[in-house]
Amino acid sequence: MKLTRRILATLVFFTITYSSMAQHMKFMGIAIDGRVENLLPKLLQKGMKLESYSTPTSKTLSGQFFGEDAEVTVAFDRDTHIVHDITVSILKNYAIENYNIQKRFLEEVESKYTYKKDVKRSEISDQPHYEYYIFENNELVGMIICELVIIDDLSMLTIDYKDVDNYLATEKKKRDDI
Fold first, then answer.
1. Is the pLDDT of residue 18 over 60?
2. d(Cα 119, Cα 157) in Å, to the nearest integer?
3. Is 62 inside a domain boundary?
């Protein structure tokens, strides 16, 4: 009986320790680590405004990101409401404006995070597609995907923040439902 209690206490200790050590991707200084109902008020406090259009698995906000007018889409699991992905979209009339924003943003990512970078050609346009795998304490916590799409004179810069644990859990759930 004492051995069982000791084993149970040890398991509880390691579970609490591991869960408190789990790192999550951050967006605007806010950890992507919980339910959409907890994240939205924090984004509203940062000056974002909730837009009227949304889906059963996303909420859209507008406001300033990196000093630019932007639309922010918060994606979450339909059942648990756990946030797994936040996408920023910045629209500009001239591509050079978004090129400059992208350059400043990528410089900041590279100065702020420990990362592994992968650059590919975009499937949508002929522009580079940047993937940054973000690490904290040697643990992969997330991805930042940055892509510029140019159509005629209009350009859209998308920056996608993915929390690894929450994103993989959501994708696994989708596959299990098939």
1. no
2. 16
3. yes
